[in-house]
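User: If only I could read backbone structure tokens as easily as an amino acid sequence. Those tokens are not coordinates but codes from a learned vocabulary of shapes. Could you go through the record with me and say what the backbone is doing? Here is the record:
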Amino acid sequence: MKKWFHRSLKNQLIAFILIVVLIPIIILGLISYYSTVQLSKDRAEISGESFLEQIQDSISFIINDVENMSVFLIGNQAVQEYLQVEGDPIYPQREIYGFLSNLAFSKQYIDDIIIYPSNGNSPISTNLVMDTEEMGIFDRIPSNKWWSYRKENETVDGRQERISLTRPIRSTSDFEQIGYLTINLNVKVIEAYLNAGELEWDGSVFILNNGKLLSGNQTVSQQVDSSELQQIIDQTKQDRFTYELGAEKFTIFTKEIETVGWDLVSVIPFQEYSSQNKYILWLTVYSVILAGVLITALVIFFISKILRPLIKLTDTIRTANPGDKLSAVDSFSYNEIGDLISSYNQLNERISVLMRQVQKNEAIKRQADLQALQSQINPHFLYNTLASVHWIALQSQAYDISRVVSSLSTFLQFSLNKGNEYCTIEQEVGHVRHYVDIKEIRFPDTFSLQLDIPEEIKQDCILKLILQPLVENSIKHGFFSLQQHYGRIKITAEKKDNRIHFAVMDNGAGMSEAKRKELQSQFLEDPLSSGVIGTNYGLRNVNLRLCLHFGQASGLRIFSEKLDGTTIQFSIPRKGR
């Protein structure tokens, strides 16, 4: 560690900054832990009350809905008549059963609705399996409010848990009791409402009715004496208190459902607070560790950023290859490191200028050598000699020789073209025709040429000697390798989007996909090396000249399949003469 500390200024800066920052972070974490423990307890109590109020609203809504439904049923004329007329009339039963079913099926929390007449008529129930044991509790039902209890009934789907709400039905004319109304609530739906909210602590929520567990977590009865808890609730009349059962302590929150006399109870074991405190402790530890890691990373990052230009400069100089252009190093600092990098960039730029000058001189030298080579061919002597041969051939009536010599003379004259690099499309096409004439004399009736060049673009400029090498490639590689094959070459040109698109198509031997990909790959490499070395010289030379004069977008594109011909396309910008 000591050796690492004294190794560099960078390591010393990192160590000092971490000591200065991390110690206050640790102290702040301890203070935050003790403050959060107390605040979390207070917040949990407030959260528990708020949570229970939300459930109270949901359960009260269900009870109020049941209350309104019972008022509607008790006041219904058909129900009143059926409960006061003896003889089990069928028609009212069907009518009453109809709207009882509609009410029951429209509410998810209602399992079934039952009307028990006091006059001996048959009970009417939405449940196909009638529970006759329930009539035995009617003598215990208070006359002025709901009677509720939990039971298990047999249904078409098997035995199911329900919360039964029963109240007397009185005559609307003389207020005499004429029957009972029972509305059975689905226990699973009620428990779903109890579990709908998210209690901050891992507690239990249930409903007490006269000291009995009406709905909720069945394991609560193993932790809490519900009868004793009911007595404490009735005596204290408090919404929140602490309840002790042996060595266990619980925080109790209560809310009353007044319509039915239920007590909504939430029980939170004290051990949950201890667990939460441990959670806060570990959260604080993890937070301090995470803060330490982040601070360490940021310190290393910023110190490295300050020294990065100098490191980059060192790496650039160390990894540079002789003869290659050195890369410039960016620096936005204005200190001694910035001055050093600025001096390096100026030196690098000077070296680049000298390298470009050397390259320019080499290019001029190669051009001079080429011009010297061309000057050695004495074009005028060559043209005069070919004219003499042409005249002798005509005198001897050797018309094929005359045609070849004439086409060759024109072909060579166009190729030299006084050193000009550009010509019109019409001249380039004429040059192709002369080349084809020469080939047709040598290889008669083996191929033909078709041209589709619009008149409007014939006077536009094109780079010289572009189409002829493509036609030569079709004849040499497309036709000669096939026996008894008549070749067809078609050259098309089309003006589109201020560019002229050319295509040279043949019906020759074509090439494999691997060969086509190899050519396209070589096309991409040639501009980087500024020259063509190796095979396929003709096509690659044309592609290189197009890229150097018009950019990569004008390079050759090859489409070919084995034994199905080849199409070569390229495009150039429109350029008047």
Summary: The chain has 15 helices and 17 strands. The first helix runs from residue 2 to 7. The first strand starts at residue 110 and ends at 117.
